[in-house]
Amino acid sequence: MILTVTPNPSLDRTYEVPALERGEVNRADGDRMDPGGKGVNVSRAVAAAGQRTVAVLPLGGAPGALVAQLLGEQGIEVAPVEVEGATRSNIAIAEPDGTLTKINAAGPELTSTEAESLLATVRSASLGASWIACCGSLPRGLAPSWYADLVARAHAAGARIALDTSGPALTAALRERPDVVKPNAEELSEAVGRPLGTVGDAVKAAEELRTLGARAVLASLGADGQLLVDDSGAYFASAPVETVRSNVGAGDASLAGFLIAGGSGPEALASAVAHGAAAVQLPGSVMPTPGDLDLSAVLVTADVPLDRVLTEPAS
Questions:
Q1: Which domain holds residue 262?
Q2: Which of the following is catalytic: 34, 252, 294, 303?
Q3: Is 179 a catalytic residue?
Q4: What is the 3-state secondary structure of the chain?
Q5: Which segments constitute the Carbohydrate kinase PfkB domain (predicted)?
Q6: Most buried pick, 37, 73, 114, 208, via CB within 10 A?
Q7: Domains in the chain: how many in total?
């Protein structure tokens, strides 16, 4: 079982439009509504793969009730923490060329009692979990050290932690030695305080995060592929993508693929890339099923192309 923790979940609505025209009436060709939040998406991807997952998240108001209902319909067990504020609602506008415009609400402010209840629920729900995936931004009311506290408590209970967050929350949690952290290129650049222009720059940044406490770094480099740096060395993987339809949740699908495949080594990296490549070719935040994956198209190598210039350099 993979348990996910999403401190700031959302109800996400995605509209597909021929082209976004500011100041005009835009008519959607399609729309869908999904439970959102990075940890929620990881749970959705795990469930789509036919594996058991439990989602721990604070929920409040009508949007929160709808998030729980939608998750249940997808076969995901929900361990909710009731909060006074309403769960946030987000909007994404997807264009045919892959351009995505997102409007994310701030979300409710959690009280100290609600924050402690969230930690307690993680502890009680994580019995038997192979991994705990802690994902996303922290809502108002939670200190940057909240993830660090969660990692420390989880490790004390013998659990493995995958962490996907950024900024001060990531920096604070590194001292507790999360088993794997999953930044994208921009988050990796922010964490080390310098721009990343090549794959080699990303490798050096990942190694720096390891010196700060991360046991392994799984870095998403956008269209260029993904990088894994751990005790055994560095690995680079990529896969061709014919058409990018929506990148919402693609990084979360990648993390799910990594954990589903054991959470370490080249095989898990290949699974991560296959899941991410499949996800970007699906509408909205639809998560890939095993039938959507093409592991044979993934190229994994320990001969990392250090001099390759990143398609989207991180600054």
A1: 2-314
A2: 252
A3: no
A4: CEEEECCCCEEEEEEECCCCCCCCCCCCCEEEEEEECHHHHHHHHHHHCCCCEEEEEEECHHHHHHHHHHHHHCCCEEEEEECCCCCEEEEEEECCCCCEEEECCCCCCCCHHHHHHHHHHHHHHCCCCCEEEEECCCCCCCCCCHHHHHHHHHHHCCCCEEEECCHHHHHHHHCCCCCEECCEHHHHHHHHCCCEEEHHHHHHHHHHHHHHCCCCEEEECHHHCEEEEECCEEEEEECCCCCCCCCCCHHHHHHHHHHHCCCCHHHHHHHHHHHHHHHCCCCCCCCCCHHHCCHHHCEEECCCCCCCEEEEEEC
A5: 15-287
A6: 37
A7: 1
Mean pLDDT of the chain: 95
Q: Is the pTM of this model over 0.90?
A: yes
What are 31-85's pLDDT values in tens digits?
988 899 999 999 999 999 999 999 999 999 999 999 999 999 999 999 999 999 9
